[in-house]
Each structure stands twice: as C-alpha cells, then as structure tokens.
Amino acid sequence: MNILQVEILRFNWSALSCGCRRTADHIPRDFLVAISEETPSENAGDTWADSHAYVQSNLMAPAVATASMVMSALAVGVPVHHRRNLLEVLQSLACGEQDAVAAQCLDIIRGGKWLLYEEITSGRSVDAAVYAHEIIALMEEETERLQYVRTAAQDKLPSYLLNENDGPYPWEI
To answer: What gap in Å lies between CA 17 and CA 13, rounded to an integer?
Structure first.
C-alpha cells in the first residue's frame, strides 16, 4: 500500500456530495483510471474533478479530499504526462470561490510545496511548471523563495513569469 491508497481510504467519499449530485465515491475510482491511462486527454481533470470536486470556480464537498488525493499522487510519482492535469486541478481547488474551503485546499498543498518547487525546476513540462508556480504564488510566505526559484529556473519558465526586477543570485551557481 502506498500513500495515495492511504489518502484515498482516509476519506469517506460516499458521505460527500459530489458536484454531479451523486455521492463522491466515484471520484477516487475515476481518478485512478485517469492516471493509469497511457495518454491523458488535454483536459483529463475534466473527467474526474471538474463538475465533481468543483463546478467552474465553485468548490464542492469533496474538494479538500481531492486536494489530498492529488498531492499524494504527486508524491508517489505519477507519470510526467499526467502532472500538468493534476497541477491544473490543484490550482482550481486552491483558487475556488469558497474562501474557507480554498484555504483548506491550499493548506494541504502547502504541506507538499517542495513537490511544486521540484516541478518548476525539473524542466519536464513548462505547463506543469506554470501551474506549480501559480499555486506557490498564492502562498504569501513563499514570496522570497519563489523569486529565487524563478531566477534559478528562468530557462524552464515562460518569460511572462519572470520578474524583470529579480536580481541575480548573491552567489555563483
């Protein structure tokens, strides 16, 4: 058993009302199917998260459990081709209109912030790095570190994320 399985079992999904008006017990099943696919669709999160954990920008009852499940999937190392979609889902959860629920989701994500920093610096996917950057930017306490990471990973991020006022490192790399 790995941490993803533990996180899925930690929640009573059938007690949560899903955005599709059923119980949320199908979310982890649909999620596991989606991350096992060889080639995800461009908007793979639409099949198991959108209209379930959130509807547009409205967070639903399974939002917090979904954030925990996704973070644990990133921790166990999902294939690269799924990371962009997972980070897009996390951003939707952290930016939802229900501030208290969005804050809970962001707290869960904050606990795994190093996974997001690693995504930015890895060079695996520009899109995944952008989502990771945008999520970390929501964490006020990470402003200084994020500035250093942007400088270090400037060749892995689109230019619009790079702040012209970012100075060079105070040390040589």
So the answer is: 8
